[in-house]
Write a structure and sequence with these properties.
Order of helices and strands: HHEEHE
Helix content: 40-55%
Largest sheet: 3 strands, mixed
Strand content: 15-25%
Distance between the termini: 74 Å
Strand order of the largest sheet: 1-2-3
Structural class: alpha+beta
Number of strands: 3
CATH architecture: 2-Layer Sandwich
CATH topology: Histidine-containing Protein, Chain: A
Number of domains: 1
Length: 97
């Protein structure tokens, strides 16, 4: 009976430990870039598929033109929520069409 318990415990630990270690690993700049581009492009307010994004050591710089100030603000808010982002430099310009 104890053998089954310890075997089961070992299997569970073997499955969970790698996932726990991976969760603590910081995201690369490339992974952060992909997440930012995807989330900005998919947001119905920002519509940020054409925005420029640069990432250096977790610092994300947003550049380009948006039509409304709410788009600029939301782009920054979305970007700040992404894991691994340390700072956001929001260089987006608001230009009415």
């Amino acid at each position: 009976m104890m053998y089954k318990f310890f075997t089961s415990l070992f299997v569970v630990m073997a499955l969970l430990l790698p996932a726990a270690w991976a969760a603590d690993k910081p995201l690369s700049d490339d992974a952060i870039y992909d997440q930012v581009k995807r989330r900005l492009a998919n947001d119905i307010v920002v519509k940020g598929g054409g925005l420029d994004v640069e990432v250096k050591d977790g610092v994300v710089t947003l550049a380009g033109v948006v039509e409304r100030s709410i788009q600029k603000e939301k782009a920054e808010k979305i970007t700040k929520k992404i894991k691994g982002v340390k700072q956001v430099v929001n260089n987006l310009r608001v230009t009415m069409k």
